[in-house]
Hints:
Elements lengths: L1 H9 L1 H19 L5 H30 L3 H13 L6 H20 L3 H18 L3 H36 L1
Amino acid sequence: MKGMNRWIDRHLWMWAALLVVLGTGILMAFRPSRSPIGAVLNAVVYAGIAVWAYRRRRTRDLRAAGSQDADVVTLNRMLAKGRIPDDAVRQEQMRGLVSRRRQQLRRARWVMPAFSVLLLIVAGLSIASHSWLAALPLVAAVMFFDGFALFGYRRQKRNLRRLDEGLS
């Protein structure tokens, strides 16, 4: 499984293909009456946007780390697991990547609360229009999203702090 994940990470066309298949399945599951060709076209557009964003992030990671494309994939996996590379060259690349990730965390601190407030406003409007059944899933989604995002934020911040201390 690890080898397959590594291969998929190195080939963006595979990401796009997986996203198109998954997106088509999700779109057809939620609206079975929809045209299959329309679902595929929508999935292609969404996959294109997702791959563009992923490629943009990877390009910025390359600049921050100052390394090859394959190295950034490996460094990202090590960063996610909280492991420090053995050789000095990769440690220097990891320092750049850790610095970039910490900067991203500081800049995007407002995203989670803003999204939560937006969902709560929609839930409040549902309640105001006497649609309690529509509001309850939204409130549950906000609670789930906030818990999941807070857990991920704290875990990433802890890993980055630990890696920063280990690389110094």
